[in-house]
Design brief:
Helix content: 25-40%
Largest sheet: 10 strands, mixed
Shape: globular
Structural class: alpha+beta
Strand content: 25-35%
Distance between the termini: 49 Å
Radius of gyration: 29 Å
Number of strands: 23
Number of helices: 18
Oligomer: single chain
Length: 519
C-alpha cells in the first residue's frame, strides 16, 4: 500500500488514501488513514495530536514507537505565535542549582537519548504539582524551553519517556550514581531508616493490590524507602504490591542495599518490620537496630510490661522531649537467643488523648467498667527495643530520628509529585517514582539550605517565577529579581545574567551591558 503526501506551507503531511467505491452513483473513499505531519519520510515517522510522534509500517499496518531523537512538538510551526515574555527565575534557578550541587552528574546516569526531555521533566516534577498532561503548557511559557530547546514533553511522549527511567538497568545506574553523590557531597552514613508508604491507585495493574496497613484498607502499591539517618536524604526505593506486608521485606531491602555498596550498620525500624525472624537476621548480619515493639508480639511485650510497670511513674524516670513528657524505664529482656534492651515508655499527652477517645467510643459501644479500666491501664504505653544500651533519656532522641522518613514522604507526596499515580503501566510507575525521588532530593536540598518547610519552598519558587525575561530576535533580556528572589540567589550563590545572546546554537549569558543588533 502506498502513502499519499501533501505539501502545506512549510510541512509535508501523509495519509493512506484508502480505496474508492461507488455508492448511489457517487465515488467515495473508505479505509483512509490520516497519519499527520511527516517527521522522517525515509523511516516513516509521523506526528499528530492524537498519537504524538510515532512510526507506521505500511506493509503490516501497525503503529510503533519513534526513537526519542525525533521531536513531536510544533515549535517551528509559524502558525503558532511565540511567547515574548517567559517565566524565568524558577527555571533558571533550578537549572543552576542542579549543576551547583553536582546533581547533574546523577542525571547523566539516566540513559535517555533526549537529555533535554529528561532535564525539562525533572524541572516540571520539582516546580509543578500538575498532571503530566499540562507539562507542555508549562514548558511553552517557561525559560525551560530556552534551556532545553529539544525537549519533547507532549503528553503522548511523556508516557513513553517514563518507560526509560522505569527500566531495571536504568534504575540501577541511577541508584549507583545517586549513592555516589550522597557519599561524595553529603555524608557516608551507614545508618539507615527503613519505612514504607502507600501509593493509592485505582488503575488495575499487578502492583496495585488491596492493602490493610495499620488497620487502613486501600487499593494501592507500596514504596519502601531507605533513608540516610544522619542526612535525611533518600538512598533508594523499592516498589512492591500493596498486599505484601512490611515484615517480609526487611531482609530483601537491606540485602539490595549491599548491591549498591551500602553496608548497613544500624537500622531504625517501624513496628511493622519487627519479628523474631527479622531480629535474628539482623543479629546474624551484625547490624544494630532500634525499633518499636508491636503489641502483637504479645509474649515479649507482656514480659516487658511485667518487669517495667512497677515503679515506672517515678520522678527519676520522667523525661521532657520536644514539649512532651514521657516516663521511660530500661528493662533487659531477650528475643530468641539474643539479649536486647527494652524501654517501657508512658507518654502523658498520648495517654490523655487515647483515654478521651476511648470514653467517647464507650458511650456508643457501652463498654463495661472492667473493659475501660483495662484500656486505661495500657493507654499511653509503648515499648522501644534496641540491640544497643542507651540511657532512657537518650532513647527517645535516637528512636524519633525516624521522623526523617515521614518528613521525606511528606516532601515526596507534597511538592515532588509522588502521588497521585497517574500512569497505567508498572514500568511507567517505576519511572514516575524515580523522577519523584530526584525532585524530592532537590527539594530537600533547598529546604535544608533554607531551613524551611515545603510550604515555604513553594512560596520561594513562586517568588522566583515572578522574575520574567523578554524575548527579542537575537537576545533574551532578564528582568530584575524582586527582593525575595534576590535573597534566594544570594543564599545559594547563584548569579543570573542580565541577558542571553541567542544568535548562536546555544544561549550565551551576559552579565553586564551588551550592545548589538535591535529586534
Amino acid at each position: 500500500m502506498q502513502l499519499s503526501y501533501q505539501k502545506k506551507g512549510n510541512y509535508t503531511y501523509a495519509k493512506i488514501p484508502g480505496e474508492s467505491y461507488r455508492e448511489n452513483g457517487h465515488v467515495k473513499k473508505r479505509n483512509a488513514i490520516y497519519l499527520g505531519r511527516v517527521v522522517d519520510k525515509e523511516n516513516n515517522v509521523f506526528f499528530n495530536k492524537e498519537r504524538g510522534v510515532f512510526t507506521y509500517d505500511v506493509i503490516t499496518g501497525t503503529y510503533g514507537e519513534a526513537d526519542p531523537a525525533f521531536q513531536g512538538n510544533l515549535k517551528n510551526d509559524h502558525r503558532k505565535k511565540a511567547n515574548l515574555i517567559l517565566d524565568f527565575g524558577d527555571s533558571y534557578f533550578i537549572d543552576s542549582l542542579i549543576r551547583t550541587m553536582h546533581y547533574d552528574e546523577v542525571l547523566a546516569s539516566i540513559s535517555y537519548q533526549n537529555k533535554d526531555t529528561l532535564w525539562a521533566m525533572t524541572q516540571y516534577y520539582i516546580l509543578s504539582n500538575k498532571a503530566n498532561s499540562h507539562a507542555n503548557t508549562w514548558y511553552n511559557g517557561s525559560f525551560a524551553n530556552v534551556l532545553y530547546p529539544e525537549a519533547d514533553i507532549h503528553s503522548q511522549r511523556i508516557s513513553k519517556f517514563l518507560n526509560e527511567p522505569g527500566k531495571e538497568e536504568t534504575r540501577r545506574s541511577y541508584f549507583k550514581a545517586h549513592i555516589k553523590w550522597l557519599k561524595e557531597y553529603v555524608c557516608n552514613d551507614p545508618a539507615i531508616i527503613i519505612d514504607s508508604t502507600g501509593l493509592p491507585n485505582s488503575i488495575k495493574i499487578n502492583m496495585t493490590q488491596i492493602s490493610n496497613h495499620n488497620g487502613r484498607v486501600s487499593n494501592e502499591a507500596r514504596m519502601i524507602t531507605a533513608i540516610q539517618r544522619d542526612s535525611g536524604y533518600p538512598i533508594m526505593f523499592r516498589a512492591i504490591p500493596g498486599n505484601i506486608v512490611d515484615v517480609t521485606t526487611l531482609s530483601t531491602t537491606i540485602t539490595t542495599l549491599t548491591e549498591y555498596d551500602i553496608q548497613t550498620d544500624l537500622a531504625m525500624l517501624d513496628a511493622g518490620y519487627v519479628s523474631l525472624e527479622n531480629m535474628n537476621s539482623l543479629f546474624s548480619a551484625g547490624i544494630e537496630f532500634v525499633a518499636r515493639l508491636p503489641e502483637k508480639n504479645k509474649d515479649t511485650y507482656n514480659r516487658v510490661l511485667a518487669k517495667g510497670l512497677d515503679g515506672l511513674k517515678r520522678p527519676e524516670n520522667l523525661i521532657e522531649f520536644n514539649g512532651r513528657y514521657v516516663y521511660a524505664k530500661q528493662v533487659e529482656c531477650s528475643i530468641g537467643k539474643h539479649t536486647v534492651y527494652a524501654y517501657l515508655c508512658y507518654d502523658v499527652d498520648a495517654s490523655g488523648a487515647e483515654d478521651h477517645k476511648a470514653i467517647k467510643h464507650s458511650r456508643r459501644k457501652k463498654k463495661s467498667e472492667c473493659e475501660m479500666h483495662k484500656f486505661f491501664e495500657a493507654s499511653g504505653l509503648f515499648v522501644i527495643i534496641s540491640s544497643l544500651p542507651y540511657q532512657p533519656d537518650d532513647i527517645l532522641t535516637v528512636y524519633y530520628t525516624r521522623q526523617l522518613v515521614e518528613q521525606y514522604f511528606d516532601v515526596s507526596k507534597g511538592i515532588s509529585r509522588l502521588t497521585p499515580l497517574r500512569v497505567h503501566k508498572e514500568q511507567r510507575v517505576l519511572g514516575h517514582m524515580l523522577l519523584s525521588q530526584i525532585a524530592a532530593t532537590i527539594n530537600l536540598y533547598v529546604q535544608k539550605k533554607m531551613r524551611s518547610s515545603f510550604e515555604d519552598s513553594e512560596e520561594m519558587f513562586m517568588g522566583l517565577r515572578n522574575q520574567k525575561c523578554i524575548v527579542y530576535a537575537n537576545r533574551i533580556v532578564t528582568n530584575e529579581g524582586q527582593s525575595g528572589a534576590t535573597q534566594y540567589y544570594k543564599k545559594f550563590k547563584i548569579k543570573y545574567p542580565t541577558s542571553f545572546d541567542t544568535s548562536g546554537n546555544k544561549p550565551k549569558p551576559n552579565y553586564g551591558i551588551t550592545i548589538g543588533s535591535k529586534d
